[in-house]
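C-alpha cells in:
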C-alpha cells in the first residue's frame, strides 16, 4: 500500500519544478539558488537562523525510479558553545542526496516522491543539516568551559582558582587551631 503524500506548497522556495525532466532517464538540470532557511533548522545548541540565506548548488537527474537530487547547501550557523556558553557563528556546507520516486512506484512512508511534477527539498535539507550538526558544539576544540563553583569563563581567566579547599567534614577542626602540645 502506498502512503498518501501531501501536495507541496508551490510558493515555498524549496519546492522545485521537475516537469522538464519528463521521465527521460539521463536528463539533467542544474540549479543554483539562494533560499531563506525554514524555521527550526537545527538542534537546541546550534542551528541555521530562520530566514537566513541558504545557497543551494544542486543537480537534478532523471533516473528510472524518479529524480535524484545531489548537491550542497551552504548555510550560516548560530549557536552556543556547550562548555562556556559563548556565541558561535560560522559557515558550513552540507551534502544533499535524495531520490524522489515517481508516482506509481511502491514507496515507504518516509521516502520522498515527485508530486504534481514538483519535489519538496525541505525534508531532505533538514535531514542533511540537522543530522550533521554537532550535538555538543564547541567555540574552540580546547574550550576550558566554566568554573563549576562560580561560573567564571575559564577561557578568559585560565589561572582562576579558589585557593586550597578544605574538606567540609574537617572544616570545624580548622577553627580549633592553637598550638599542638609537645
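Residues out:
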Amino acid at each position: 500500500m502506498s502512503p498518501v503524500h501531501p501536495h507541496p506548497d508551490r510558493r515555498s522556495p524549496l519546492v522545485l519544478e521537475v516537469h522538464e525532466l519528463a521521465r527521460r532517464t539521463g536528463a539533467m538540470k542544474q540549479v543554483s539558488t539562494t533560499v531563506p532557511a525554514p524555521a527550526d533548522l537545527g538542534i537546541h545548541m546550534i542551528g541555521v537562523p530562520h530566514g537566513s540565506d541558504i545557497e543551494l548548488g544542486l543537480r537534478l537527474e532523471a533516473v528510472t525510479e524518479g529524480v535524484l537530487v545531489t548537491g550542497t547547501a551552504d548555510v550560516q550557523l548560530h549557536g552556543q558553545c556547550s562548555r562556556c556558553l559563548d556565541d558561535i557563528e560560522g559557515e558550513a556546507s552540507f551534502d544533499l542526496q535524495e531520490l524522489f520516486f515517481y508516482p506509481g512506484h511502491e514507496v515507504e512512508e518516509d521516502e520522498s516522491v515527485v508530486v504534481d511534477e514538483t519535489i519538496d527539498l525541505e525534508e531532505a535539507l533538514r535531514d542533511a543539516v540537522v543530522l550533521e550538526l554537532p550535538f555538543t558544539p564547541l567555540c574552540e576544540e580546547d574550550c576550558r568551559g566554566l568554573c563549576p563553583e562560580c561560573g567564571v569563563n575559564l577561557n578568559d581567566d585560565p589561572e582562576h582558582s579558589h585557593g586550597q579547599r578544605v574538606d567540609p567534614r574537617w572544616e570545624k577542626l580548622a577553627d580549633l587551631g592553637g598550638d599542638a602540645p609537645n
